[in-house]
Amino acid sequence: MALNMSGLQNLLLLINYFYHLKNTLMKFTILAIVSTFGITQFAVGQNNNIGQQNAITTAVPFLLISPDSRHAALGDAGVATSPDANSSYWNAGKLVFIEKDFGGSLSYTPWLGKIVNDMSISYLTGFYKINREQVVSASLKYFNMGYISFRDINNIDLGEFKPYEMALDVTYSRKLTENFSLGITGRYINSNLTAGFIGSDAQAANSVAADIGAFYTKDYKGAKPSNLSIGASISNIGAKLTYTDDNNKDFLPTNLRIGSAYKREIDAYNSLTFTIDLSKLMVPSPTPDGSNRDKPLLNGMFGSFGDAPGGAKEEFQEIMTSIGLEYWYNDTFAGRLGYFNESKNKGNRKYFTVGLGFRKRAFGLDVAYLVPTNKRDSPLAETIRFTILLQFDKIRAEEEQSVTD
Q: pTM for this one?
């Protein structure tokens, strides 16, 4: 393992894991190492030779974790799917095409449940349609990392700490034509991993970022109506983040995502949607001398398309693929399948996803389940997500209120 300033999240995951073991000696060993190195972060050693592991690491990777169940069940594809209350996360541009006038959703994911039992990701979002051409929304993503028990090198109890990360978003989405829209999201990020708890110079890290999204959609009439949508977004464009000083800054997980979705009505009751997303981190590839890590923000973003040590072959390996299939019966019951693929040299995440959905008037419920291809060794095994949606029409809400009165 190589020590650097880009992987404290990984360190905390291991601490959390060993904290839940019954082997006191093992816990003491891990916690003693933590106390010895202070806030020093670590990441898995990386080999920069093409064909071997050279994964890109960033600060606050929780920003890239799919927050809602519907799109998680589609293999983490969502830049061009039909809009819903969670659209601002996937593509700020498409939110304005949502059919409902206001609403929101709440999602909950027990995280790394195969390893620990007190980590989770929660996502709360709400939207309001100003008029036919404009929509605004706000959301909160909260990553609970569970409790960490700190001990010094002499095994003296320093107490417990509950690290967390959060992102607060505000989105504006607008139609430019009947078929095309743009959107922008502003984001505040707070990462509190140790905050000086163990007597070091660590502090909570803060940053701001923005997302930009574009969306095009067109309906096709005929005996079997269909719809084609195309989307693109760049997320987490923002200032580098540091837990100590300006000499130890890490890139945010700036991510480019492009994709398409095609929906076909089979008959009056049944429909199928096929969607595919391609995504790539706009973050410098690791180099043997570490020089890429010190690049300025814009230089690092746009230079990320040609800075891989292995050349074009390694650049293509940095592209992740998400494929999903969604079936609806009578716009009430949904079944979903998906697959996510990442190069074995860039992280090697490969998994299938499945999910179910239900809609009844204003209410919706989605569930997703993740099945890694290497189920035995993957910490993502048995990941399950839950999402509740409430989406209303203004006219219907007014009518229901008048009946109540």
A: 0.83
